[in-house]
Amino acid sequence: MPRGRWFIQDPRSCKWVQADDTVNNLMESAFKLQKSTIDITIGINEYRVDFVKRRMYGSSGGSRLIRRDEVQASNPYELDEYANPKLNMKEIENLYNKCKAASDTEEDLIQGEGLMTLCSELSISIDDVSLLLLACRIQAAEPFKIGRTEMIVALRSLGIDSVKKLKSAITQWKNELSNDRSFKYFYWFAFDWTREENSRVMQNEAAIESWKTLLSTRCGKFPLDLWCEFVSSQYKKAISKDAWKSLWDFMQTSAPDLSNYSEDEGWPVLMDEFVEWAQPKLRS
Amino acid sequence: MKLSIRPFETKSLPGDFEKMMWKKLEMAVHSIHKQEAARHPLEELYTAVNDLCLHGFTDSLYDKLEKTCEDHIKSVFSKLEGKRLSGVKFLSALSEVWEGTCIELTVIKTVFGSLDRTVVLHNSRKALWDMGLAIFRTIFTNSESTKTRTLTALLEQIQFERQGTSINQGLMKQTLSMMTSLGIYDLFEAPFLQETRRFYSEEAATQLAKEGDIGPYLYLIQSRIAEEGNKVEAYLSFHTRKQLTTDVLQCLIGDHAQDILDKGFVSLMENKKVAELRLLYSHFDLPGVQKVELLKNSFRIFVKQAGAKKVLNEANDSSMISDLLVFKTELDDVLQNAFSGREELGYTLRDAFEEFINMRANRPAELLAKYIDSKMKPGAKETDEQLEPLLDQCLDLFRMIAAKDVFEAFYKKDFAKRLLLGKCASIYTEKVFIGKLKAECGPSFTSKLEGMLKDMEVSREVLSEYSGEDTNLSVQILTESYWPTYQSCQVLLPTKLSTALDGVKTFYLKKYSGRRLVWQTCLCTCTVKATYARVKKELNVSLMQALILLIFNNEKEVSFAKIKELVGTSDVELTRSLQALAFSNQARILKRTVKGGKEIADTDMFVVNEELQHRHYKIRVNGIQMNETEDEAKATTERVFQDRSYSIDACVVRTMKSRKTMSHSDLMSTVFSQLQFPVQASDLKKRIETLLERDYLARDDRKQNVYHYVA
To answer: For B52-82, b where at least 16 C-beta lie within 10 A, e where not — what string?
Structure first.
């Protein structure tokens, strides 16, 4: 089920006002769990929300209409945590425990060796983007680590309750990558997965590696080699998330000889410097 | 009775009535043409005409008269051509002919009066006068040679006049009014204008090709315009005036406006020739010319170039501000007197001034602050009345400088020093100036300055209640946040001094509990009484130097290391103070026993210089430098730049917070307009990047150049 956005009608002006995030989450979770009413507190006032009657009743007696709009999230990897609440995730849990055992850590994570185990269980190569895809779908929070709740909740919301389903899902996801939009968000996630722990930036070398792996097939006429050369020899600083993300749009919108670049469009300074350095080379 | 009415008896005219009458009249006309008296008295002739008209012979009479006149005028003309005159002589002959014709026609008109009336009313023929003129005109225009000779002669005369010879203006007038009456003035006008244009274009070209100043040319233009005006008054027809003026202006000024400016404008401005400039402006402003735009351009270029020379010449720094003030006054003068204060030129002046003064990013601001500082101290040569307009001019310069925060930083520092060391010539002037700055830039700009002033007053009030034992001690207790930060240097104070200071401290803390007081020792001054063998002197020194000198009360010769130990301060500070005492050129109070360079080693020994010679009783040792060192100035500038990046950040966040979503270009332009100092686009971009990294802003997912505010 796609996400929902809740709106409350102001009784005096009859305008629909968007409920703020906390209220929205409360209402959404209750709705997904198929409850009929829920009591919530906004500020100092208490209200009872009735999903059947589609009204919100205040403590002093008034009531307001509520409505729910279904919103397609722009990020195709965003998860709907409340979907499929009754799914049996036993098999997945077993898989998780196996991998956790392999990763020698006290925390409830799969990491290091555990990732290798996971890959062999799912018959995917660790060098492949498949692992990255899986992490992306799970929306793993920390680089090269997968947590228990993360994995289980994510896979449950996607309706995957067995290893077989997971394997086929992985192949399906790979095919979806040919869609530009999915790839963009996947590429953005790649930054979070390959950056250093506790750091907001990615090291130069790691970035270049990742770019070569991920983007070489998709860069079109964009001079990706020149870009990597520039970053390793001239720029030499760590890559920020903003620069990483912007590279995708930069690739899509630039002319092959970078002639349509404009400094006033707000590209990160990294792009400015690259264009300045690369344009004479491209012209010759 | 039969009444019968009988018609009148018609008298029949004699058969040759007409012939006889006409014979009489013809003779009369001939004599008129010969300008002789007529045989028959005029009255008889008049009656004859009248009779003829009554009896219906008007037409034939008219035709016969016309023919006679025509023949006569033809003969006159051929006589004129036969004379083969040219030039002035021709003109005067022609003029005579014309005059004669006019007189004759008048007489004929009188005699043939009734014919005139009858003919015009009943038969719609021309009146006799007009008939005469028409004849004259036809004959004149049909004779090519007469025409050409007339025109040539007229133009020749005009040419002579323009070249300076005086001509017979009366003759010109007569000829031209003849042509006007004949209605053939256009024949003259077109070639005349053409000739005018040719003449003046030539003149303009020759004048401009000449070397030298443009001044004479401007005066020439003025005289020419006057001349041509006179011509119109004197003999030209008045409706030539407009076209003539336009043409003259066009040829002399309009076509060559840019050349005039290129040639002479700069030298006029440089030599401040206000009269010539005024002339130039008035010429350019004439309705026929309207080339003030070009003047504006040249003006702007001149101001920019001359100003840039003054500003960019680094060797000139010490006098830059006074030069600029003088320059501005001169320009204002020119603007008022020469250009009659025209608004557009005023704006041009301001723009050009702003452009060049900001060519050198921060130096003018710094120098301006220093200049004002020098004027506010005692020892400035201006009186109070002179000072206020001078400060107004400085404020004018300030308005045009972009780097206002640099000015603020330097001004604040200097102001603090002035207040602390009691070097303000007049507190009133200071207050007035701060008020002006406030009106200019808003209260946030001057809040610290006002704070400093108030601090001094408050401190004086509070401490007036302190009745300590030591009346030679003068203390100020100030709020740290208003004042610039100073280095704190530790010293070991002698007991007497420290007890006195403690006394003040206790008094203050009793009054206002919960405040922290820190003594700023490096700004303190002391007066030390020195008794030499033959003289007594008073030495005005810094606190540290005083402590050093006091050591010599107990010992004759002290080493550097010992001094350091006794005074209890750092090497650097001590070295500086000692250098001022021992190596100064004006008054060497201490002597080093061993010769050496500027550096002081630990083992160097110092003694009091017994042979101190100085004119004055009070000697001041330059311990705390009133004027900044290079390093201090650089440090201040650095700090200003750092503050700038904070201001930029704050501005960006503030803008985003109010607007929530903005595109990149919008954000850049809004921030640029809000900042009080010049900033590069690339710097601003870098600050936005850092804010992005720190999650104050976020980019839009779909649109690359749109930012969102992150709460």
So the answer is: bbeeebbeebbebbbebbbebbeebbeebee
In chain A, residues with a C-beta closer than 8 Å to the C-beta of B681 are 263
pTM over 0.80: no
Which CA distances in Å does A146 have to A137, A155, B1? 11, 12, 160
Q: What is the pLDDT of residue B75?
A: 85
Alpha carbon separation from B568 to A190, B491, B564, B591 (Å, rounded):
61, 5, 6, 21
What is the Cα–Cα distance from B281 to A233, expressed in whole angstroms? Answer: 62
Count how many residues are written for chain A.
Answer: 284
- Walk along chain A (284 residues) and give the pLDDT tens digit of each residue: 567 888 888 888 888 888 888 888 888 888 888 888 888 888 888 889 888 888 889 888 788 898 888 876 677 777 777 677 777 888 888 888 888 888 877 888 888 788 888 888 888 877 778 888 888 888 888 888 888 888 888 888 888 888 888 888 888 888 888 888 888 888 888 888 888 888 888 888 888 888 888 888 877 778 888 888 888 888 878 888 888 888 888 888 888 878 888 877 888 888 888 888 888 888 77
Residue in this structure with the two tokens 């070991």, named with its chain if needed: B492
Bridge partner list, B706: B663
The answer, yes or no, to whether residue B13 has pLDDT greater than 70, is: no
CA–chain centroid gap for A33, Å, is: 24
A265–B contact, CB cutoff 8 A? yes
Q: Are B376 and B425 in contact (CB under 8 A)?
A: yes
Looking at B271-341, list the stretches that DSSP marks H as alpha helix, in order from N- to C-terminal side. 274-285, 292-312, 317-337
A256, with CB counted inside 10 A (0-12, 13-18, 19+), is: exposed
Q: Which residues contact A25 (CB under 8 A, 6 or more apart)?
A: none
Best residue of A264, A270, A272 to probe chain B, by most B CBs closer than 10 Å: A264
Alpha carbons B294 and B272: distance in angstroms, whole number? 19
Q: Is residue B14 scored above 70 in pLDDT?
A: no
With CB atoms and an 8 Å threshold, state whether B682 touches A264: no
| pLDDT tens-digit readout, B78-131 | 888 888 777 788 888 888 888 888 888 888 888 788 777 777 776 667 787 888
Distance CA(B425)–CA(B378), nearest Å, equals 5
End-to-end CA distance of chain B: 137
Task: Tell me whether strands B536-542 and B618-620 are parallel, antiparallel or unpaired.
Answer: parallel
Check residue B471 and give its pLDDT: 66
Alpha helices in B555-629 (DSSP H): 560-567, 571-582
- Across the interface, do A272 and B681 touch by the CB < 8 Å criterion? no
Q: What is the distance between the alpha carbons of residues B522 and B544, in angstroms, rounded to a whole number?
A: 7
Q: What is the mean pLDDT of chain B?
A: 81
Residue B463 touches chain A, beta carbons under 8 Å: no
Query: B691: Cβ–Cβ under 8 A, 6 or more apart, which residues?
Result: B649, B652, B653, B697
At residue A39, what are phi and psi to the nearest 5 degrees?
Answer: -100, 130
What are the backbone dihedrals phi and psi of residue B13, each rounded to the nearest 5 degrees, phi first?
-75, 155
- A266 and B693 in contact by Cβ < 8 A? no
Rounded CA-CA distance B169/B164 in Å is: 13
Contact assessment for residue B540 and residue B619, using Cβ atoms and an 8 Å cutoff: yes
**Contact criterion met (CB below 8 Å) for B709 and B697:** yes
Distance of CA A251 to the CA centre of its chain: 21
User: Alpha carbon of A129 to those of A137, A142, B419, B486: distances in Å?
Assistant: 12, 17, 71, 60
CA distance linking residue B655 with residue A268, whole number of Å: 20
Q: Whole-angstrom Cα distance, residue B608 to residue B563?
A: 13
3-state secondary structure of A209: helix
Q: Cα–Cα distance between B379 and B499 in angstroms, integer? A: 37
Closest partner residue to B664 among A240, A266, A272, by Cβ? A266
A200 inside 8 A of chain B by CB: yes
